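In the design runs reported in the main text, the only information available to the sequence generator was the tokenized backbone. The following block is the verbatim input for one such run; it is reproduced so that readers can re-run the procedure and compare outputs position by position.
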């Protein structure tokens, strides 16, 4: 299976780098197109076997899966350019463009002959470049084999979940926006650590390892966060005092309100 990525910006470049580090698609079967060359040349320098071009049509016709990783206002222009050269009977189209639904994408893909390709919405986050993304995938007109293959690709780049399209906005909030929220928490702990006497870099190291440990505990034990919180909160202890102070300052409500806000268009 060959894959083409149209756009080498933040997400397109991150996807290309993640795929190149994986084992499912050989680097020589990855094609990346972009209107300007500096980002393409940077990819080629890192992964010499990757195929780069400034011609979207060249990339699209070479691939079994064509991934759109362009700005929203460029989607129609790009599709009008590549769709006359595509064969929908064996090529699938996947969009990483935020806010674009399958119905609208299908309308723009229509050549007027009633034939449409297997179509996907893919919502990863920027951790895809380090093979640790949480990716949501919604599909239309696809087979189980196609779905399984795409999920396998993105599982190798972190973790992937096939969901109904209606959950894509919530998934975007939880994982794509969510990575920024997690980083903001890390920053807050770093600032608190400095106030408590740690150097900033040491505080960052501490909170990063603490978050890894928290995630590992939940995964290994398959437990609810509150059960693990109970293990470290003793009556009258330091942890419960800190938790209560955070809740008094609106911690949980702030997180939920932030998630709600980021699902609004």
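Verbatim output:
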């Amino acid at each position: 299976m060959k894959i083409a990525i149209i756009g080498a910006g933040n997400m397109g470049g991150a996807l290309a780098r993640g795929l190149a580090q994986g084992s499912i698609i050989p680097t020589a079967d990855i094609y990346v197109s972009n209107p300007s060359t500096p980002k393409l040349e940077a990819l080629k320098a890192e992964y010499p076997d990757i195929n780069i071009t400034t011609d979207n049509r060249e990339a699209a016709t070479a691939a079994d899966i064509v991934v759109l990783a362009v700005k929203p206002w460029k989607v129609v222009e790009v599709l009008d350019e590549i769709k006359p050269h595509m064969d929908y009977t064996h090529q699938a189209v996947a969009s990483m463009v935020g806010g674009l639904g399958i119905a609208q994408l299908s309308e723009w893909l229509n050549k007027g002959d009633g034939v449409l390709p297997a179509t996907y919405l893919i919502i990863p986050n920027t951790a895809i470049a380090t093979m640790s993304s949480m990716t949501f995938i919604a599909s239309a007109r696809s087979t189980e084999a196609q779905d399984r293959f795409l999920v396998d690709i993105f599982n190798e780049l972190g973790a992937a979940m096939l969901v109904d399209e209606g959950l894509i906005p919530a998934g975007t909030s939880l994982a794509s926006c969510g990575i920024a929220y997690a980083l903001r928490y890390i920053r807050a702990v770093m600032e608190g650590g400095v106030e408590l006497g740690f150097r900033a870099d040491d505080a960052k190291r501490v909170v990063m390892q603490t978050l890894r440990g928290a995630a590992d505990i939940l995964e290994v034990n398959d437990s609810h966060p509150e059960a693990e919180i109970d293990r470290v909160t003793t009556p009258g202890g330091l942890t419960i005092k800190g938790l209560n102070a955070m809740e008094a300052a609106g911690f949980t409500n702030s997180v939920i309100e932030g998630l709600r806000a980021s699902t609004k268009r």
